[in-house]
Amino acid sequence: MASRYGSPLALALILLAGAVCQGSDLPYDPLPYEIYWNVADSDPPGIDISDYNIFPANYTQTGNSCSNPGCSSWTQGVFPTISSTGHTVNGGVPQRANLSEHLWTLARDVTHWIPDPDWAGNAVLDFESWTTVWELNTGGDGEDWHSRRYLEYSLELEKEKYPDWDTEELYLLARKNFNISALDFFAETLRTLATLRPKAKWGFYGLPMNFNGPCDGNGTSMVCGYDSGVGKLYRQFSDEQNLVWESSTALYPSIYLPPGRTVDENAAYVHSVIKETVRKAEDRIPVYGFHWNYYHGGKSLLNMDDLKSGLVGPYDAGAKGVVIWGSSSERALPEFLDYVRDHMGPLARNFTEQMCKCSQTYCHGHGRCMPSSSTNCQCYPGYSGPSCEKADPKRLHVNSN
């Protein structure tokens, strides 16, 4: 499939030929729920993934990989990092980094990563060495995920400048300088890329953070993460990253499911992460959860209940859709291909067709049924009324440009 997008209506007709999901004169993508394939940058062998109403691999690019015709892998600029052996790149921490060099590298390389200036897919940055909130960098010194070594190095820098200051003063200054610079680094990255490829949906993978605990309550009344008793603190961390959300054109939180938890815990966890992300999106940009068909660690495939929670559960929490991630090692495994054919694929197709029919039947194709089990309509921008039957020509004109 060519990388240049056609009209949203054409895409809907291609993907949903068996259950046409189109609205009359609708200037938006009329799919109530979008599912994207991002397993090892290519579609599964012997399977036409679009048969399941799933956008194929060339609609999503993540990290340094590429799936677009003619694209080249890239470095995602020059993020400041510190290796486990202490080697620093671009200053090591954001407050010492050369932001101009990073942005120049992005501008030079993004045209190779996304050759088509009209490409309108998911452009997902994957940088996990550190994150933009000091307290969330909790990984061990030998780890490469949100490592504490960035905080330790930040403290060392302040000690060198102010050797007579006490520990608390140094801590507060190091935290302040790190957070300000980290936010600016992420935000300027997003703004620069959105200027160069304005139709792509830019965002960082794994943000907001996917807190999977603690959980309160029992059964279907269980709440976890952002909805739990410590949710206020977690939401405060999200609020501290407002500059990142404001600079994004889509949000891509991780909803990978940990092993060893109950079905209710996993469902509550997914709902919590997506609901918080939708809160920060503020109806301005879409939310796509990153779903993995395996439990975190990649050793076993999700059971059917957990598959439903991860693949279609985000809909009721307000997500526009999900991105199905997976590794190159699993892509051609017979058990994985059988899982796609027998479980994941049919679930994706049945749910998207059900939501399209509900939209057409109860929302005039100008909104989506929310929640999925109801006939209540959540109207698309530019439409209003109990069944989204009223159009605002001014809003339609503005939003279609």
Automatic annotation (TrEMBL):
Report the domain of life of the source organism.
Eukaryota
Q: What's a Gene Ontology MF term here?
A: hyalurononglucosaminidase activity
Its EC number is 3.2.1.35
Q: Which InterPro entries match?
A: Aldolase_TIM, EGF, GH, Hyaluronidase
Which keywords describe this protein according to UniProt?
A: Disulfide bond, EGF-like domain, Glycosidase, Hydrolase, Signal
Q: Which reaction does it catalyse?
A: Random hydrolysis of (1->4)-linkages between N-acetyl-beta-D-glucosamine and D-glucuronate residues in hyaluronate
Q: Which residues form the EGF-like domain?
A: 357-389
**Where does the UniProt annotation place the signal sequence?**
1-23
Which cysteines pair up through disulfides? They are 379-388
One Gene Ontology term from the biological process aspect of the record: hyaluronan catabolic process
Q: What class of enzyme is it?
A: hydrolase
What CDD domains is this protein classified in?
A: EGF_CA (cd00054)
The text of the family note is: Belongs to the glycosyl hydrolase 56 family.
Protein's UniProt name? Hyaluronidase
From which organism does this entry originate? Geodia barretti (Barrett's horny sponge)
